[in-house]
Here is the input.
Amino acid sequence: MKELVRIANADIPGKKAVYYALTKINGVSTSFSNAVCCTLNLDRKRKIGELSEQELQEVEQLIRNPAAMPQFLINRRKDAET
Here is the structure.
């Protein structure tokens, strides 16, 4: 198990559950974190330090390019331009 995980320029303690650990990344809310876990079929209670390098890369790619996510999680609904 890794003690420190770096995802999207954020240092996350490896002992945190995936669901809560992803919220430490700037711009990731609890609902977005839940959607990432559901989209990638990750157990929310699993420690983030236990994820493999491939799983961490998939998480980072999904956070950087959330094309597979529901539109309401990506878009700011009250933004007049979109």
In short: The chain has four helices and two strands. The domain at 4-74 is CATH 1.10.8.50 (Helicase, Ruva Protein; domain 3). Strands lie at 4-7, 10-13.
